[in-house]
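Hi support team,

I submitted a single chain yesterday and got back a structure, but I'm not sure I'm reading the token output correctly. Could someone confirm the output below corresponds to the sequence I sent? I've pasted both exactly as they appear in my results page.

Thanks,
R.
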Amino acid sequence: MTVTDPIADMLTRIRNAIQVRHRYVLVPHSRIKEAIAQVLRDEGYISRFEVVREGKFPVLKIYLKYTEDKEPVLRGLKRVSKPGCRIYTKKADIPWVKYGLGTVILSTPKGVMSGREARRQGVGGEILCEVW
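Hi R., thanks for writing in. Yes, this is the structure output for that exact sequence:
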């Protein structure tokens, strides 16, 4: 079965794994998904990730992060730019998520980065998703 939007598939897998309190989730590997996982780790939403190259295709193993009360650190994920309707932003118009409590993930000419990092570097780009 082919997936038309692999990033939305990744976010849905993470969302489903959090709902049932899994320790980790396996996602088919690609460089953009690895870059998104890197941003999630840097922003503190996941504990870590690794690329598992066993089997026919490599997979991304994302370890989810929970509080001491077993509540997920990652509360929500939302895909913004879709294959049918791409959403771009200028550096001055990078949106704030949940009044600054969340993070927007952008694909910029300097790579995939959080909205905070894009503002610091002064670049805009495609808004991939929002995380809170």
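A quick pointer for reading it: The first strand starts at residue 24 and ends at 28. Let us know if anything else looks off.

Best,
Support desk
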